[in-house]
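Title: Comparing notes on inverse folding

I've been comparing how different people in this forum approach sequence design from structure. To keep things fair, I'm posting one structure and asking everyone to reply with a full sequence. Here's the target:
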């Protein structure tokens, strides 16, 4: 605790996540695929809470324009959807995993640069393992990833989630507090 923290009664400002942590998925994807047999599904999504301001709409439009401009070169397909909780999803489809990651970073960087980084919820990367979908979710507020393994109707396989944490924890910044491994049901991916 610094001098000002002591003087102001111990209040501390929360540290924001490191923006480059999202790119840890680049090297982790290689380990997931080659080492663990989890294949990327060629789709990813980023969720955020919209704000009804002209400024926010302008920033979002600029991000979409950047995405569409780069999509001509990369072949990335871009969609958007709103979920039942009111979050907006930008859904990206591309067989090249690195292109998906760059497109995700474009959206998050535009929102963060415009002062709306606190509206970012999650980036979601689905993988296939033995015909079933496994997700790695990046929590923007915490700056960490966590595995999510749905196993049925609003059921999850926590044992497999813990196994994935142990298997990939050296490659990704994994959320240490498992209470924060929140399930994201009915993903539009």
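Reply #1:
Here's my take.
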């Amino acid at each position: 605790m610094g001098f000002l923290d002591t003087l102001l009664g111990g209040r501390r400002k929360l540290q924001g996540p490191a923006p480059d942590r999202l790119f840890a998925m680049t090297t982790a994807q290689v380990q997931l695929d080659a080492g663990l047999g989890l294949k990327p599904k060629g789709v990813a999504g980023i969720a955020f809470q919209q704000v009804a301001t002209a400024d926010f709409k302008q920033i979002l439009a600029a991000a979409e324009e950047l995405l569409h401009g780069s999509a001509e070169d990369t072949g990335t397909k871009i969609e958007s959807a709103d979920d039942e909780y009111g979050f907006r999803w930008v859904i990206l489809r591309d067989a090249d995993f690195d292109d998906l990651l760059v497109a995700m970073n474009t959206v998050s960087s535009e929102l963060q640069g415009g002062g709306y980084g606190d509206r970012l919820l999650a980036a979601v990367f689905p993988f296939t393992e033995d015909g079933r979908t496994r997700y790695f979710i990046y929590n923007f507020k915490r700056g960490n990833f966590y595995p999510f393994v749905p196993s049925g109707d609003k059921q999850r396989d926590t044992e497999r989630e813990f196994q994935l944490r142990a298997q990939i924890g050296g490659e990704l910044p994994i959320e240490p507090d498992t209470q924060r491994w929140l399930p994201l049901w009915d993903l539009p991916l």
